[in-house]
Design brief:
alpha/beta, 15 strands, 35% helix, 15 helices, six-stranded parallel sheet, single chain, globular, nine-stranded mixed sheet
Length: 469
């Protein structure tokens, strides 16, 4: 196996280019990269559909338009000229012989597997047998297994023919602007850096709420659930970025080493500190088993057992069919001592730092002022779009990083296995499933997790000024 460095790929080969991910995300990302003049190589699509290149181009055009992206015909024509197509069965060796013929002397490729995880190992093994992996990289979409054992097995299968630095594990949350920006906000600003530990922070809340249900994905979702779908990957990866120490250098391993330290310091979940729930009507959806015990909502408490964060309770929640669509990280400071100079000696409300990941990414610092004898919140808000300009979309960042060999935006093997270790007790002992109404903030039982702590706060929405639920 050869080392994979920071080279630019000669060809992007997308397995599954006729699938949902390509339709919803990939074609738009490729178009936007073309518009920014960041796409520098041909794109070869591979799938089982027996279609022409012209049909693929038509699908790509429709996909870009359907995402709401304004279409510049000159830009799209440049993208269309890069596209080619190969159809066949990914379990058939003849497909890889034909692929090698199409690639010719170009052997420095990014193979992007937009395929079911069960096909990752067979495809990679076939690419290796065809002599196509020595100087290439392989990007794989989540899920990376369905529990700790399967994740370890998948990693072992991939590592049998690839070096770790040739494997790019895609978690699109790592490509979101606020998640990328978090490292710079934390360590580039003394005002934040000095507050970021157990001496200043009393509690952390992370919320990922979606205001839509499972819809037409019932069969897929019922075998996954909220814990596997977004907590084990997205939210624990975000938490690692929130809690890590500053990296000692600029490499991807420098960054992932610090994230790994955080994940290793998280004790495995206590099922008694977790709440699972389903929204009303979930079991009526096509593809969902009658009597299903799959959760569409999960809330949990955990801690990080290290010197920076010991004793700080951390609460995560994620759910579908909730009141709003919003993802945020919220940190509460300790209270200041009672203010003796006031007519009525009292303590001010704690300050809060809020990083909104979706929608309208931004940062809020919430302060406290006294107005006519009553405490009042003052918000210092920054909208990243307004202050930093239009960002690359997550899949633009991820595709560009993969093509240029930048591993910063991809999850490393040990970190994936640590996140599965953390959630494994809840997979082994899931406990009772509760109910909640669509359009709510989840079941009452989730609020009981925070008894004696700050309650779940109403997330920061673009026009929202409410304090708590």
């Amino acid at each position: 196996m050869a080392e994979s460095g920071g080279r630019g790929s000669e060809v992007l080969v997308i397995f599954g280019i006729t699938g949902d991910l390509a339709r919803k995300m990939t074609f738009r990302a490729l178009y936007c990269l073309e518009r920014r003049l960041l796409l520098q190589c041909p794109v070869l699509g591979v799938a089982s559909d027996d279609i022409s290149v012209e049909e693929l181009v038509n699908r790509a055009r429709k996909a870009v338009v359907d995402t709401g992206e304004g279409l510049d015909n000159k830009v799209f024509d440049r993208l269309a000229n890069r596209l080619s197509y190969l159809h066949g069965d990914v379990t058939d060796p003849a497909l890889y012989a034909e692929l090698a013929k199409r690639l010719g002397s170009r052997r420095d490729c990014l193979f992007y597997l937009e395929m079911p995880p069960s096909l990752f190992a067979p495809i990679v093994e076939s690419l290796d047998k065809a002599g196509l992996l020595a100087h290439s990289r392989v990007a794989v979409e989540k899920p990376f297994g369905h529990d700790l054992k399967s994740a370890c097995e998948l990693n072992a299968q991939l590592r049998a023919v690839l070096n770790e630095d040739q494997i790019f594990r895609v978690d699109h949350f790592l490509g979101k602007q606020p998640v990328v920006e978090l490292e710079y906000l934390r360590f580039g600003n003394l005002a934040l850096a000095e507050m970021w530990d157990r001496h200043k922070i009393s509690q952390i809340q992370i919320t990922m709420a979606e205001n839509f249900g499972v819809e037409d994905r019932g069969r897929f979702y019922d075998g996954v659930g909220a814990l596997r779908d977004v907590v084990q990957n997205h939210l624990l990866q975000v938490l690692a970025g929130v809690a890590m120490e500053p990296p000692v250098g600029p490499s991807a391993d420098d960054l992932n080493d610090k994230k790994a330290d955080v994940l290793r310091a998280i004790p495995a979940l206590d099922p008694d500190l977790c709440v699972r729930a389903q929204y009303s009507g979930y079991t009526d959806i096509d593809g969902v088993a009658k009597g299903s015990q799959t959760e569409t909502f999960v809330a949990l408490r955990l801690e990080i057992d290290n010197w920076r964060w010991a004793g700080v309770p951390i609460f995560l929640r994620a759910g579908k069919a909730m009141a709003e669509r919003v993802t945020e990280v919220r940190l509460f400071t300790h209270r200041v001592p009672a203010l003796a100079f006031l007519p009525d000696r009292k303590k001010a409300e704690p300050n809060q730092i809020v990083l909104r990941i979706d929608p309208d990414p931004g940062l809020r610092v919430q302060l406290t002022a006294l107005d006519a004898g009553r405490w009042r919140d003052i918000h210092l808000d920054s909208s990243f779009m307004q202050d930093l300009g239009e960002p690359l979309t997550p899949y633009e960042r991820i595709l560009h990083a993969g093509l240029t060999g930048d591993r910063q935006l991809f999850a490393r093997e040990d970190n994936i296995e640590e996140t599965w270790r953390v959630v494994q007790p809840l997979l082994d002992n899931p406990g009772k499933i509760h109910r909640y109404e669509t359009g709510s903030w989840g079941p009452e039982e989730a609020r009981s997790l925070l008894r004696g702590q700050h309650g779940w706060h109403q997330p920061w929405l673009p026009t929202d000024h409410r304090a708590s639920q």
